Every structure is written in C-alpha cells, then in structure tokens.
Amino acid sequence: MTYSSEAAQEKRRSFLDPRTKLALVIVLALFVLGGLGGEMMEPIKRVLSVLPFLMLLAERQWKRFFRGLLMLGVGYGLLFVMPYLHGVLNFLALMCGGILTRFVVTIVMGEYLIATTTVSEFISAMERLHMPQAITIPMSVMFRLFPTIVEEWRAIRRAMGMRGIRLGGNRAGEVLEYQMVPMMTSSVRIGEELSASALTRGLGSPVRRTNICRIGFRVQDGILLLLCAATFASWLLELCGVKLW
Fold first, then answer.
1. pLDDT by residue (tens digit) across 94-139?
2. Separation of alpha carbons 229 and 67, rounded Å
3. By residue range, what is the domain housing residue 152?
4. How many domains does one find in the chain?
C-alpha cells in the first residue's frame, strides 16, 4: 500500500499541522471577521489577512488563490470608489466592500483547511487535543460534507442543463423546482450517509483508534502559533491601556 510507506506519507503531508490551521481559522474569525479589537488591531489584521493566501501558495492551490485574491480585490475596489459615489450606490459599495474584505479572508482560510487536511489527519489532531467525540465526529463529517455537496450540485446542474433547465434557458422558471429541491434532498441524504460511514469506521467506539497519517509541529507551525499568541497578547495589552503603536 503506497500510503503506508514513510516516503509517501511525507509527500502527502501538508505544509501545516491541522492544529495550526484550526488556530489560524479561530484567530481570523475573531479579529478579521469579527472585528475584535477594533481599529487598534488594524496593523495586525493586515498581517493576518495575508496569511491564507501565503498558505495557498505554499500548497500550490492556484485556483483557490486567484479566486480569493479576485474577491478580495473587488472588495477593496468597492471601498476605494465608495467616496465618489452618492446615495444608494454609496451604501451598496460600503456594504458589499465591507462584507467582502472581512468574509473572504476567513472563508479562504477555512477552504484551505478543508482542502489540505484529510479526515484521518483531522481526527488524529483532535485526539491529540483530547477533544470529546461529540465534537470530533460532527466536524470530521463536515470535512467530507461540503466537498461532496459541491460535487452533487455540479452533477445536478449538468443534468438539468442538458434538459434546458438553467438560468437564461428556455425553462429558467423551473430552476428552483428541478435544481434546488433535489439539492436539498441530496444534502440530507449525503449527511446521513457520511454519518453512518463515520460510525462504521469506528469513530464512535470507546476504544482509541490508530492511524497511519503523520502530523506534528514543525518550524512553520511554531512561527504561526507564536503569531496567534502574539495577536491575543497584543489585544490584551491594548485592553489594559498599553499602546503598542
């Protein structure tokens, strides 16, 4: 079995440990998406906003990198032209630009986490963190749920497109019935099947599972974890009245 060899495991190994990715997702969700710290944390937020794109470059995820960069560029572009607009257009540019600049960075980080982490690696990381199975099992199912739903959506769209049921087609009015309804029923079925598959593989067993995937902290993990810790430390110091810049 190729995956069981040490060389194959090292080749498949991600640039970051799953625990480091989770820490980055939490930090980005709190400070970039949630706006924790306000304007006083703005310099750190700019640094954090760059990290997901650097991670995508390190993993050679070119499509996700350029797609996220495009969406972020659109967001900052809207904020740039906002002062020159008036009325409703000014409000729409502010709203859409604010949403994109906050949401895109965190979404890109979450997409990077799911795309570069296998279920086995994630479960192994959760076990090392001593997370209860009530948290580990639903999150491990989630790792397969979203990619499977995307594939199912593409299959439904192709099938309906061959029958002329698509936006801009002769039967555009039937898109909701023949695309959205099958997608919702398929999502329920996919969730049930993935849950059953997880339990079949012994995720609900009281006996500790073994795995052959390799995870562990390396130099880059230490640097990024220190950055996460420094972000929280900076926020606490600012709360205490210490001016860092």
1. 899 888 888 999 999 998 998 888 888 888 888 888 888 788 878 8
2. 29
3. 130-212
4. 2
